[in-house]
Amino acid sequence: xxxxxxxxxxxxxxxxxxxxxxxxxxxxxxxxxxxxxxxxxxxxxxxxxxxxxxxxxxxxxxxxxxxxxxxxxxxxxxxxxxxxxxxxxxxxxxxxxxxxxxxxxxxxxxxxxxxxxxxxxxxxxxxxxxxxxxxxxxxxxxxxxxxxxxxxxxxxxxxxxxxxxxx
Amino acid sequence: xxxxxxxxxxxxxxxxxxxxxxxxxxxxxxxxxxxxxxxxxxxxxxxxxxxxxxxxxxxxxxxxxxxxxxxxxxxxxxxxxxxxxxxxxxxxxxxxxxxxxxxxxx
Lengths: 167, 106
Description:
The structure holds two protein chains of two kinds. By secondary structure, chain A is α+β, with helices and mostly antiparallel strands. Chain A is built from four helices and eight strands, in the order ββααββββββαα. Chain A has an eight-stranded antiparallel beta sheet with strand order 1-2-8-7-6-5-4-3. Chain A is globular. Mean pLDDT of chain A is 82; it is low at 147-167. By secondary structure, chain B is mainly alpha-helical. Chain B is 66% helix and 11% strand. Chain B has five helices and two strands; from the N terminus they run ααααββα. Chain B has helices at residues 5-8, 12-23, 28-32, 39-51, 70-105, and strands spanning 55-60, 63-68. Chain A binds chain B through residues 1-2, 5, 7-14, 18, 20, 22, 24-26, 30-31, 33-34, 40, 43-48, 143, 146-147, 151-155, 157-159, 161-162, 164-165, and chain B through 1-2, 4, 6-7, 10, 15, 18-19, 22-23, 68, 70, 73-74, 76-77, 79-99, 101-102.
């Protein structure tokens, strides 16, 4: 099913961005829906083993999505996306932040700007995501947090490579 | 523009070059045999990898061998593992959801 779907992932330390391109085997409208409807976002947004729950969502310019990622071990991580500009089904931009259960952003944790663009590729769709942090330190903080939350694993090819090097 | 490790591995040909020279140091000619692109294109990728300090050159007689800078590779590994895996998981779940939605439509 997911053979040969393009996936590019590039972290750029020069301008504090992550650029992520991913092809999906579905039409653009369906992929757009998955990104912009809470009942669908709930089904995929949090990486395993986390699950996503939406507290509130108002998908419009100036609106927001307030959600929580729940660790099966107990911890909960609240987040919110404040939508800046939405142009169905081409793109949306928003400001991503860590927050608490009442939706108040944590000023000590990095915020990032998201630009998500949807394009057609025959009967597939391509989603191009650019996540921009204010500083390299912010990007590093978020990566460190990922480690703490146990979202650890490895880039397969590099893993193999490092194994090879150790021999 | 200053280059860094992330630009180095952004390109599939460069990733393939890294995998090849991880096994053994190679000359540009030997490397070029593994690719459909021109020898020139391979040289360009090698230049970028050198500027990123991911590979280093070693002269043996008249030949230049390229070998991997292991320390730099570990830097990338550490940085990127976390994020890439998160996004991969996320997208795999979205693949499954899209598959389900398409079946429901039929």
